[in-house]
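Homework-ish question, so no full write-ups if that breaks the rules, but can someone show me the predicted structure for this set?
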Amino acid sequence: MTGKELVAAFAQRLEGRDWAGLAELLHPDVVYEIPQTRERIRGRDRYVTFNAEFPGDWHLEPRVVLGDERNGSLLFRWSLADESSLAVAFFEFDRGVITKVTDFWPEPCEPPPGREHLVERW
Amino acid sequence: MTGKELVAAFAQRLEGRDWAGLAELLHPDVVYEIPQTRERIRGRDRYVTFNAEFPGDWHLEPRVVLGDERNGSLLFRWSLADESSLAVAFFEFDRGVITKVTDFWPEPCEPPPGREHLVERW
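A: Not a homework solution, just the prediction itself:
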């Protein structure tokens, strides 16, 4: 698989709860990181378990899938019950499998003052 | 320029305060959005002004640059005085210029309980 195909398959197998299929895309020593919480999970088994144990009937819908030989990225809409937000993952690859996943979960916030003359809100 | 080159040039010209050079990469009707604050800026002139007016001696250092014909992404380290964090931008292209920029500024937060058996903190 190309990098782009790896990212697309990752999203599809996660959404489909295809844990065996997800594991096939991952290096045994894959590292998962969430910089916002400073959390790290080491290893394919723990990372698949983390996803399988994640509570709730969550769904992810890919919006942008990108990848080259070394890196990939995924912009997706994440939904869980009444909540829905955009989230981002970056990937590192080595010889056709994913060696690192870095997740970002940007939270809603208020803008700083001083740019109202340029900006509209929605 | 390819999509990947557009993203790399965007980061370089922003960091270099090369406002004329940045404008060359942008469609006149470029749209800039920050989903977290629900802010939108329409048009190249306002978007360049927004960046030129952004206060402080900020710096951005690209970590990952990706792009194809239609979409691009940038993972970068953003620094301003003592603060430093990872941030993300996604891009849309049309005929060699940037038509949309979507920024994400993920803030530090605490993890939910229940995954301590899988996770280490740093």
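Now go work out the reasoning yourself. Hint: The helical segments of chain A are 3-15, 19-24, 44-53.
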